[in-house]
Design brief:
By secondary structure, the protein is of the alpha/beta class. It contains eleven helices and 16 strands. The protein is globular and about 65 Å long.
Length: about 400
């Protein structure tokens, strides 16, 4: 029988180690005993499968988010079922590609709920696609755990909607606090015209005065734009001490390249949405010096030993590398957190629980140590994280470096 908070995690390509995951369920870990006997794994039975839906931007402008999310969900589905499922029942993670598009996300959500009869949904990957399905899942009364960061997803609280990505409000707070420490007070904003960019711009504007930040220019771009020269030239004509770019996908790398081409000698801050290897690859040498808040996974080897998330970050890293022979990123971590929270909720509610009982169990999540932080939900809090969930990082010689 697979029990998530007592699971054995695969940590090499050829061996399985027994690792207690009581912390993942928010419970204290049991002390290890010397040479424990391996737990017997009960086979998956022929009973009704437990269906969990997943909405990821596997293709399209958000594919840098959706691909690792899909891969992580598939990996966990495989592992759960290889270890007996949930109380002997097979877990099916039914992935649908939103292509990063709002209309596709809504169509896929309807299919998962009405045709596949899923018990809950993880994703979507992007803020815009999440906001596009919120009203539907509220009406359908199916719990959704979004992998996107916009504050508007869970503020105000919506009964059936939760969130695992550290949010844009906390990211902006971390950026502005750091700017204050560095004596930066005048900034230019360059934001994506999508849901993620719109919500980021809102937070950047709303929090500015509290941090003594003056916004001297506001520009925007579409996520399909291929050149930022016009916007950056206008910014270069101001007295901005820094630029904040808020977006995902390929366009933020064009901002870094454009600033280099124009020889703009001011720092560039990016959102946590581009804290991945693809940004460094796309920006090339112009990635160096860029500063951003990021999930702690990307600086795993630089974290102090007393970091509360360290053990769980290491477990995810080891399992993903063993499965795919490449490094994971925090987007996959969002899927890890969302799927664990749903599965833990089903364990607590019972494998025969209905959608309402599973929603209630999700809301009861407390002290879950995940990739994005330590989650505690409640009736008035479906976000569950704090600004401390982010690390501030920069890039040096094409490598991530922890600042604070």
């Amino acid at each position: 029988m697979f029990r998530l908070n007592r699971a054995m995690y695969l940590v090499t390509a050829v061996a399985i180690m027994t690792i207690g995951l009581m912390a993942l369920g928010g419970c204290p870990q049991q002390e290890e005993t010397a040479d424990p006997a391996p737990a017997a794994v009960e086979p998956v039975t022929d009973g009704e499968p437990i269906k969990i839906g997943a909405l990821f931007a596997v293709t399209g402008p958000g594919s840098s988010l959706g691909e690792p999310e899909r891969d992580t969900a598939v990996m966990l589905e495989k592992y759960i079922n290889e270890n007996g499922g949930l109380d002997g029942r097979e877990v099916q993670v039914i992935v649908r590609d939103t292509k990063g598009l709002e209309t596709d996300a809504l169509t896929a959500a309807r299919e998962l709920v009405e045709k596949e009869n899923v018990l809950a949904i993880i994703g979507p990957s992007r803020s815009g696609t999440t906001l596009a399905v919120v009203d539907y899942v509220e009406q359908a009364e199916v719990a959704l755990i979004s992998c996107a960061a916009a504050r508007a997803i869970t503020d105000p609280v919506k009964k059936w909607v939760f969130q695992v990505a550290p949010g844009d409000a906390d990211a902006v707070q971390r950026i502005y606090t750091y700017m204050g420490e560095e004596g930066i007070s005048r900034v230019a904003l360059l934001t994506e015209s999508s849901g993620y960019g719109i919500e980021g711009l809102k937070q950047l504007q709303e929090q500015a005065s509290a941090h003594s930040i003056e916004i001297v220019a506001t520009e925007e771009y579409a996520d399909t734009d291929t050149d930022m020269t016009t916007q950056l030239t206008r910014i270069a004509g101001t007295d901005a001490q820094a630029v904040v770019c808020w977006g995902i996908g390929k366009a933020p790398a064009l901002v870094a390249r454009g600033m280099g081409t124009l020889n703009m000698q001011i720092p560039l801050f990016q959102s946590s949405g581009v804290a991945n290897a693809r940004f460094i690859e796309a920006a090339g040498e112009h990635a160096d010096g860029v500063i951003m808040p990021a999930a702690k996974l990307i600086v795993l080897d630089q974290l102090p030993e007393d970091e509360p998330q360290l053990a769980e970050l290491q477990r995810y890293h080891e399992m993903f590398v063993a499965e795919y022979e490449r490094e994971p990123d925090h987007y996959g971590g969002h899927a890890w957190d969302a799927l664990h929270i749903v599965v833990n909720a089903i364990e607590r509610a019972g494998v025969d629980a209905d959608r309402t009982a599973i929603r209630d169990a999700i809301e009861g999540t407390e002290g879950f140590v995940g990739m994005g932080g330590i989650f505690t939900y409640g009736a008035d809090n479906h976000y569950g994280l704090s600004p401390d969930s982010f690390a501030m990082v920069t890039i040096e010689n094409g490598e991530w470096k922890l600042i604070e």
